[in-house]
Design goal:
Layout: H1 2-11, E1 19-23, E2 28-29, H2 31-39, E3 56-59, E4 69-73, H3 74-82, H4 88-94, H5 115-125, E5 129-132, E6 138-140, E7 157-159, H6 164-177, E8 190-197, E9 213-219
Parallel strand pairs: 1-8, 3-5, 6-7
Antiparallel strand pairs: 1-4, 2-7, 8-9
């Protein structure tokens, strides 16, 4: 996954957008919901903490950011991509590379982990602020705590739908019967844009695609 982040950095598309988003193929993601979510100025209609300006990333699970949907602000991406070398210790732990031997007493969960844990641990080590958004960001069938019966919740994305048929059914259900408030735009709208990328990685973990999928739209300015 380090090669992917190197490619993302080299392409530079992330500099042109407010958010960089990694989405797994089995995650049903609604960009318009995300834009409304990150630019809202009230918690009345869409629950969860308001998102501060600056270098931040969104935590979608009480056990730590879960890989199907990873969202990092432009300032957070700047910090991350310009300081990847400062996370070499985390990369080595993820890959089970210990030149001097595995440290004594290292917990099982602190090595041989996936790209989502690498990103989360690296961002925290680089002092990028984590914003807990459990209530509205991700509906998760298997991990975390929630066990939704369908894709009708007030969520930005839904996981995991691993066949094309299941993915399309979830998307259609959300479009026809899903719950999402009609958030009104505030005055003085500005461009809020996203760079989303998605590809399945080895071992079931997701990794951002070097090619990616770009999208932008008019939305209220982030506060």
């Amino acid at each position: 996954f380090m090669h992917v982040w190197d490619s993302v950095k080299a392409q530079g598309i992330w500099r042109q957008t407010d958010w960089t988003i990694k989405v797994d193929p089995d995650c049903v993601f609604f960009p318009a919901r995300f834009r409304a979510f990150v630019t809202r100025t009230s918690q009345d209609q869409i629950p969860g903490p308001l998102i501060p300006a600056g270098p931040v990333f969104l935590n979608n699970c009480k056990y730590g950011m879960h890989g199907p949907l990873e969202a990092v602000s432009r300032e957070g991406m700047t910090t991350f991509l310009q300081n990847l070398d400062d996370c070499e210790d985390i990369r080595q732990a993820a890959m089970d590379i210990f030149p001097g031997g595995m440290p004594a007493g290292m917990r099982e969960r602190d090595h041989a982990f996936g790209e989502d844990q690498f990103l989360r641990r690296c961002l925290i080590q680089l002092n990028v602020k984590m914003v807990n958004e459990f209530e509205s960001l991700l509906s998760e069938k298997f991990a975390c705590v929630e066990r939704p019966k369908d894709c009708g919740g007030t969520k930005v994305a839904f996981h995991a739908y691993k066949t094309t048929e299941d993915w399309m059914k979830c998307h259609a259900f959300t479009e026809s019967k899903g719950s999402w408030p009609a958030v009104q735009s505030t005055s003085g709208a500005s461009t809020a844009s996203t760079y989303a990328s998605g590809a399945s990685g080895a071992g079931g973990y997701g990794a951002a695609s070097a090619a990616g999928y770009g999208a932008s739209a008019q939305a209220p300015a982030a506060q």
